[in-house]
């Protein structure tokens, strides 16, 4: 396990859709260990593999004291109710903008044994699941902002780069 550098907006790995994990080998096991170690820090709710430079479909989370991961996640259900609140991202440091997300989300994927897993939640967990799957699809939360807020975000982004 190792402390991994977080890739910052502008790095092409963040805009490249991640490849599915086809074989669970020592490299994937190391990736999961690194994701779990690196998300387990104050102020971190989720971490996608491409945020540490690995283009594979995997992410970890640390919400309400629960630490976990999922491989090859896909969103299979979103609730009809929405939540509105400021969202931030380790790859977009120091910036938080109002982002609308579904208040409930469920993802399905596999674990390190290749067994099916389902992860679901409301509120912050739902936001995290959607945010991390977006990362794996090559999207940032900035892409989900309303037009005017996105303009503000792009201006703010230029000042921190």
TrEMBL record:
Any Pfam family matching the protein: Pep_deformylase
Co-factor note (free text): Binds 1 Fe(2+) ion.
E.C. number(s) listed in UniProt: 3.5.1.88
CDD domains xref list: Pep_deformylase
Keyword Iron: yes
Major enzyme class: hydrolase
GO molecular function annotation: metal ion binding; peptide deformylase activity
Cofactor(s), names only, from the UniProt record: Fe(2+)
GO biological process: translation
Catalysed reaction, written as an equation: N-terminal N-formyl-L-methionyl-[peptide] + H2O = N-terminal L-methionyl-[peptide] + formate
PANTHER family, alphabetized: PEPTIDE DEFORMYLASE (PTHR10458), PEPTIDE DEFORMYLASE, MITOCHONDRIAL (PTHR10458:SF2)
Stored NCBIfam families: pept_deformyl (TIGR00079), PRK00150.1-3 (NF001159)
Family per record: Belongs to the polypeptide deformylase family.
Stated role: Removes the formyl group from the N-terminal Met of newly synthesized proteins. Requires at least a dipeptide for an efficient rate of reaction. N-terminal L-methionine is a prerequisite for activity but the enzyme has broad specificity at other positions.
Name listed for the protein in its UniProt record: Peptide deformylase
Gene name in the database record: def
